[in-house]
Amino acid sequence: MFYICKVKIHEKMMSRCLQLGKNGLGNTAPNPMVGAVVVHQGRIIGEGATSPFGGAHAEVNAIASVTDKSLLAESTLYVALEPCSHYGKTPPCADLIVREGITRVVVGIKDPHSKVAGKGIARLREAGCEVFVGVLETECRDHFKRFLCFQEKKRPYIILKWAQSSDGFLAPDPSLRKADAPYWISSPASQRLVHQWRAQEMAILVGTRTVMDDDPSLTVRHAVGKHPLRVVIDVEHKLPKHASVFSDVADTLVLVAMDKQPQDFGRTSFTGINRNMELLPQLCGILYEKQINSIIIEGGAYTLQQFIDRGLWDEARIFTGTRAFEKGVTAPSLPQDKIVLESKSGADRLTLYYNV
Ligand SMILES: NC(=O)C1=CN([C@@H]2O[C@H](COP(=O)(O)OP(=O)(O)OC[C@H]3O[C@@H](n4cnc5c(N)ncnc54)[C@H](OP(=O)(O)O)[C@@H]3O)[C@@H](O)[C@H]2O)C=CC1
Ligand SMILES: Nc1c(N[C@@H]2O[C@H](COP(=O)(O)O)[C@@H](O)[C@H]2O)[nH]c(=O)[nH]c1=O
Ligand SMILES: [Zn+2]
């Protein structure tokens, strides 16, 4: 009976940790958005979450928020990710926990980061702390999906996103659309949702044709949040300098063939790719080097299909509008067994796929 009760408390507290951590989405990356609570006799006496990138970790903030520090020795610290054991931008949290005299720690999941990977838990146990690992593991893995993907697969978490007509086209026939502007298939509500999504990821990418046809901005305008790094494929260096994607409101990275070597300008920089090698693995390597742990791919069809065919994607978010086009740019195709959720977004159908 006591055991069942205790498990419920563990889950409840871990769920609070995840809730606190979620506020960091779009701010803490590439650091994980950790949440922590300090519990004394079943009551939360301190809470904290990871500060924006470079700032304090969740454990530090949770401990700092406890007014009566004398209670720490009899308290349990709940934290969604294993406390760190290394000097990064901040000193090790495991040392702080020991120093503050906390003797019970409940951890959601182990940190796969090579500098931690069990060393934080070992450090706590060596100092006499009782450490329990593995509470709400599935929820924690989902919460830390960007961080875990980056650490484990050495590439960003990849989200594919597009809007398609009711009969499966990404854009109508050119005769039916204006030049240099997107053809809006999805509803305003979906467009606002997309801007929230943009603010949650570190980067956004489109192919050459999309820049030529749509002249997109790829910024966060209909939501609050940071602009992601704009990544553009332009192997042949054909895109004009005046394209909106090169505006100075956000940083842009252009993937261009090594033999082209254009000059960086404004907030736009060029990175050389080897045209004799596959582009997507090179892209993943470049983003990994830059510590970009998530990216949203917004089209077009050719670019999206390459990610799908290579299995280089983690999630796909598809809006299906109400209008039929009959002809145009055919939407990419995804394996149907990967559908996990269907819902409505304004007038559109929103289908989510997970590549697991
Ligand atoms: N409804 C929606 O959600 C969206 C609709 N769209 C629409 O889709 C259309 C564009 O789609 P699409 O024509 O498929 O074009 P893309 O935007 O996918 O661009 C394709 C081009 O990008 C370059 N490229 C992409 N991947 C690679 C690679 N691995 N190696 C080298 N070059 C690469 C190539 O350019 P090159 O050969 O010139 O070097 C290729 O032809 C537009 O009309 C746009 O309006 C676009 C985005 C979203
Ligand atoms: N047409 C279409 C989309 N198009 C995507 O949005 C880009 C335009 O971005 P911006 O210039 O920042 O508003 C465009 O180039 C393409 O990648 N997205 C959607 O959610 N629904 C739509 O119907
Ligand atoms: Zn830490």
TrEMBL record:
Q: Which GO terms describe its molecular function?
A: 5-amino-6-(5-phosphoribosylamino)uracil reductase activity; diaminohydroxyphosphoribosylaminopyrimidine deaminase activity; zinc ion binding
Isomerase as UniProt keyword:
no
Q: Which GO terms describe its biological process?
A: riboflavin biosynthetic process
Active-site residues from the entry: E59 (proton donor)
Q: Describe which pathway this protein belongs to, using the record's wording.
A: Cofactor biosynthesis; riboflavin biosynthesis; 5-amino-6-(D-ribitylamino)uracil from GTP: step 3/4; Cofactor biosynthesis; riboflavin biosynthesis; 5-amino-6-(D-ribitylamino)uracil from GTP: step 2/4
Q: Where does Zn(2+) bind?
A: H57, C84, C93
Binding positions for NADP(+)? A163, W184, T210, D214, R221
Report the EC code(s) recorded for this entry.
3.5.4.26, 1.1.1.193
- InterPro entries per record: APOBEC/CMP_deaminase_Zn-bd, CMP_dCMP_dom, Cytidine_deaminase-like, DHFR-like_dom_sf, Eubact_RibD, RibDG_C, Riboflavin_Biosynth_HTPR
Which cofactors does it use?
Zn(2+)
**Which reaction does this chain catalyze?**
2,5-diamino-6-hydroxy-4-(5-phosphoribosylamino)-pyrimidine + H2O + H(+) = 5-amino-6-(5-phospho-D-ribosylamino)uracil + NH4(+); 5-amino-6-(5-phospho-D-ribitylamino)uracil + NADP(+) = 5-amino-6-(5-phospho-D-ribosylamino)uracil + NADPH + H(+)
Question: Cofactor note from UniProt?
Answer: Binds 1 zinc ion.
All copies of domain CMP/dCMP-type deaminase, residue ranges: 8-132
The entry's keywords: Hydrolase, Metal-binding, Multifunctional enzyme, NADP, Oxidoreductase, Riboflavin biosynthesis, Zinc
Q: Which residues bind substrate?
A: R198, L218, E298
Query: What PROSITE patterns does its record include?
Result: CYT_DCMP_DEAMINASES_1 (PS00903), CYT_DCMP_DEAMINASES_2 (PS51747)
**Which Pfam families does this chain map to?**
dCMP_cyt_deam_1, RibD_C
- On whether Transferase is a keyword of this UniProt record, the answer is no
Q: What function is annotated for this protein?
A: Converts 2,5-diamino-6-(ribosylamino)-4(3h)-pyrimidinone 5'-phosphate into 5-amino-6-(ribosylamino)-2,4(1h,3h)-pyrimidinedione 5'-phosphate.
Q: Which family does it belong to?
A: In the N-terminal section; belongs to the cytidine and deoxycytidylate deaminase family.
Name of the protein described by the UniProt record? Riboflavin biosynthesis protein RibD
Q: Which organism is it from?
A: Sediminicola luteus
